[in-house]
Amino acid sequence: MIAYDFTPEDEALIDEVATRARPLESHFGSAIRKQSLIVRDYWVGFAGELALSRYLTGGDEAFVRSREQLEKGGTDCGEDVPGFRVDIKSSWASFNRPKKYHRLAVRPAQLLDDWIYILGLYDDCRLTMMGWATTRDLRSSFDKLCYGGFLGAHVIRADKLNPMPGSTEARQLWSIPSKRA
Length: 181
Hints:
The protein is of the alpha+beta class.
């Protein structure tokens, strides 16, 4: 596990990004969600992307650049940090469940070939990256959610995920190869 503690300045940056975020297609099924809950879900997703940016690049620049591209109408195509084939799936940690029992959930439509998915849990000004799984790990998982907004999603429990490597090793393993000859 790797944890990032957020300062009030970090949270202000996430607040700023969350308020500027263009409405994205909701994945909450047919349930009607209040706007405040959707913004809350966006917020924790942005917190995960900021922590991932710091983990892989050592700073905030990639996070800010990625968010600016999305605001212009682009897409990250699952590439939360430019240049890395990594998608962090962040959620609020449940206070009535140990972190090891939380699950990484990825919908079939979000699974990209040869990609890495990280489970991030946020609580008390801290984002903890619990572990990671490959596309192959998720596709071979027999556990699928059969309820709610994640109906049919591939899931792996946090204690079954691969442990997080050091940031130097992660940069080497997860970077997208240059297309230059």
